[in-house]
Amino acid sequence: MDKKSKSHKKATHPTQESKKHSLLKHWKNNLSTIYGNVPLKHMQKTWNRYFENKVTLDEIKAILEQD
């Protein structure tokens, strides 16, 4: 396999960080649609309960402000 194939293959597989960012944004959008607002503290508490990759409030704010 040449270098181009390898780099292309890497580009098609999202990283754990990009998966986390995508999931947090999708989750926030769903909660906003259902409840009208989303307390970040609730998102942090729930995320940290179910995922090994813990997040802080500042990290959640930074992720959700990206676009």
Description:
With 67 residues, the protein is mostly helical. It has a domain at 39-67. The protein has four helices and no strands. The longest helix has 20 residues, at 16-35. Residues 5-10 have low confidence and may be disordered. Residues 1-12 have a biased composition (Basic residues). Residues 1-23 are annotated as: Disordered.
Q: What structural class do the secondary elements suggest?
A: mainly alpha
Please tell me the overall pLDDT. Answer: 82
Kindly estimate the percentage of residues that lie in beta strands according to DSSP: under 5%
**Number of helical regions:** 4
* Helix proportion range: over 70%
Number of DSSP-assigned strands: 0
Termini Cα gap: 34 Å
**What is the global morphology?**
globular
Q: Could you spell the SSE succession in H and E letters? A: HHHH
What characterizes the major β-sheet? none
